[in-house]
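Chapter summary example.
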Amino acid sequence: MSVVAQNNRGWVLDACSLIDQGCSLCIRYNDKYKSHVRCCFKKQCFQLLQSHYSLNAAAVLDGENKDVVQTTVKPAKKRKRKHSELNHGEIDSQVFHAKIRSVILEGTKSLVDSAHSVGYLNGMADTGKEPLPPKECRLAALCEMAKELPLVDSEEQEPCVQSLVAANGSTSHVDLFSRVTENKADKAVVVTLMGEDYVIPRHTAFLLSDFTHIQPLVDYGKKYDLIVMDPPWENKSVKRSRRYSSLPSTQLKRLPIPVLASSNCLVVTWVTNRPSHLRFVRDELYPHWGVEFVAEWFWVKVTTSGQFVFPLDSPHKKPYEVLVLGRYRPSADSTPRSPEKSKVSVEDQRLIVSVPSALHSQKPSLSEVLKSYIGAEAECLELFARNLQPGWTSWGNEVLKFQHTNYFNLTLADDPEDKDEGCTDKPTITSRSNSPEEPSAFQHCPSTLG
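The structure predicted for these 450 residues follows.
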């Protein structure tokens, strides 16, 4: 079960189970035949056993020692400066943290206790010292290459949507960069795209493109009841690591939210712990789109034993991230609002507690915790996505990033008609990119768009 525990403070999620729900039972298309397999996300990606505390720090969330979480890791040597030299942003961060500290501490303790009562977050590892999947090729580079392709004349423009798998099982002619791709099957599929194997969840649609080529998503014509986005915020650590290209905050205003959102659509934005970003979303970005701020939630990252992954009061990294929730309220909209959605209020300062992925930028799915706020049969969209979710539409220049088979264990399914038994420890299938005879193009970006 993906929602392990829940109370009036929020939820405890098993993020790995959430991924497996959408793709555990798959059809694998391989040249001229197909087989049935189970695809389970590699558990070692969610086996964070130790928190980033100093060795003498007690990182437990109990009543007697809860203030011990202020103990910090010994920072790297930096130029010493006086407290009075804190810049405006650092002062803002301290003020914001002081305001929400008790919410984070008390809420996390309550939720972790609830998880302990059902045997979760007990510190046990499901895997040994298995290595993490190999470093992946950045799909953003392929989107840049796709821009060099000749434009199709508007009079000859093909439909903006296509099926992932043709009737004969072929995926060789799928245009990932300028058309929305759909998997309408009741099961996930494992297919070869651009010379690599990917796991595509059931009932999903996606567009692999960057900000300048988002128009096919608009032409897709759907109106969404939930829009979740994880923008590539500008910050110093991103610039130093060069993990991905950031986007200036002001450019986010160009996102066509009013075109994509249904009336009363719930809009959720992941925000870094910079108060300037939080203020921008609440006071500038949301009003620009006609989105009314309704709540502020927190994702709290813990280890497999329920400790904060970083000291709560660390001046460098915090064990939480912020989510800003709003409702799209078009000023001139004659379409009646859904009574089911308009009556559901969103509580403020709820917590989502989970063990974070060891893979950079992989966020937990919000589908389970948000479904009660968006009504039945809601249409859901994720922007700047790095993975796919069953029943959702996803867009981004790395939208298939965590769908590569390097991140999954694939096992043969004995009987595809049997009830899904979930992930097992059966011998895994060697994927195309893991073959010892052939180096993975996933680790070295392919030179063609395929």
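To summarize the output: The longest helix spans residues 88-117.
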